[in-house]
Amino acid sequence: MISDIHSPMFSNETIYEISKDQIKINNTAFKAVYDDLRNIEMLNRSLFYSFDGDYLVVQERGDPDHIFYFLRDSIFIKTYPEFQPKYVERNGQKLLLEDAFNKVRFISNMDFASSMEFYSNELKKRSKSEFFCEIEFVLDTNNVIRDVVFLNPIDLKLETELRKALNKIKEFYFNDLKENVLVVQRIQYSTFGKKDVSQEVKDAMSSFQKGDELYHNGKYEEALPYLEKAIQLPVNRRQYFYFDDCLRTLGICYLMLNRKEDACKVFNDWGDSSNFNVRNYLRFFCNNKVILEPPDKERLIENIN
Q1: Under 8 Å between Cβ of 103 and 145
Q2: Strands 181-189 and 131-139
Q3: What is the SS3 assignment for 104?
């Protein structure tokens, strides 16, 4: 079990959407060809599937250790109630919060950020520099976008353009969930090492990189000061990709040093058990009952649309 926690696969979010001619993995589509022997041929990958009760079992050919168990969304949510739909209130109205199980459809052949950039010259300029923006809006049951809020401050000229761009791409959005949905979209450009990155960010990343190198060399005690410093520096943790990696590495270092309480503080700061990236660390180390040797179905369970 301890050896498993070093693997990126121990706890991560991987969403498969399987249809008759393609498999989409984390929004990246791959052409898929199925045969009568339960083989799935994809570009550079061959899979074999079978069924075990409610589970769809997928094994990657040539890699017998990679076996995944999938449940349909409805069964998964019934089995794990922490993934029940979540609701928030905005302007006195109860709204369904979009998540991996309750998603509106966006049918553009570009992602959200690229679609917005297509209609905004100001955003195109920002793509060449460090930029982060989160936009919250309601998509109602009539496919109307309303109540647009920018969650972090941006200049008025850019905000005006982005509002116009959002109005242009509204035709790509469809709400099939029969409830008004609160959607949060992110636009992010990173240019690490360039002049527009603050010194705080550079210091945090440098500290994480030093700690991460020590961690990979098995020097867990020596890694701690660098990792602890990296998460304490005043940066927007949602903006920088390294932050989650730093929390994961710091938590594992604490586990390897038998500092379980400190590890669980880090993991709980990262997220709750509905966050797949930290879910298994919480389940196997931070519950009252620690599962030392979980069965494969418990460890590798995924959801399937």
Answers
A1: no
A2: antiparallel
A3: coil
The answer to whether 197 and 191 are in contact (CB under 8 A) is yes
258, 259, 257, 232: which is closest to 243 by C-alpha? 232
CB-CB contact of 242 with 205 (8 Å) = yes
User: What pairs with residue 131 in β-bridges?
Assistant: 189
Burial annotation 125-149 (CB, 10 A radius, 16+ → b, else e) = ebeeebbbbebebbbbeeeebeeee
CA distance linking residue 286 with residue 254, whole number of Å:
13
Q: Do the Cβ atoms of 113 and 187 come closer than 8 Å? A: yes
Contact 114, 174 (CB under 8 A): no
- What stretch of H or E contains 149? strand 145-150
Determine the straight-line distance between the first and last CA of the chain, rounded to whole angstroms.
29
> Which tens digit of pLDDT belongs to each residue from 178-204?
999 999 999 988 765 556 667 777 888
User: What does the radius of gyration of the chain's CA atoms come to, in whole angstroms?
Assistant: 22
Domains of the chain: 4-77 (no CATH), 85-189 (3.30.2420), 199-292 (1.25.40.10)
Q: What is the pLDDT of residues 23-62, one digit of tens each?
A: 888 778 889 999 999 999 988 888 899 999 999 998 887 7
- Average pLDDT over the chain, rounded to an integer: 86
Burial class (CB in 10 A: 0-12, 13-18, 19+), 188: middle
> Pairing state of beta strands 16-18 and 22-25?
antiparallel
Q: Which runs of consecutive H residues, i.e. helices, occur in the chain? A: 73-79, 112-118, 121-126, 156-169, 199-216, 220-232, 242-256, 260-270, 276-285, 296-299
Distance of alpha carbon 230 from alpha carbon 244, whole angstroms: 11
What's the CA gap between 30 and 279, in Å, rounded?
Answer: 27
DSSP 98: P
Q: Which two tokens stand for residue 284?
A: 């196997």
CA 4/CA 173 separation, integer angstroms: 40
Candidates 130, 134, 123, 126; CA nearest to 164 is 123
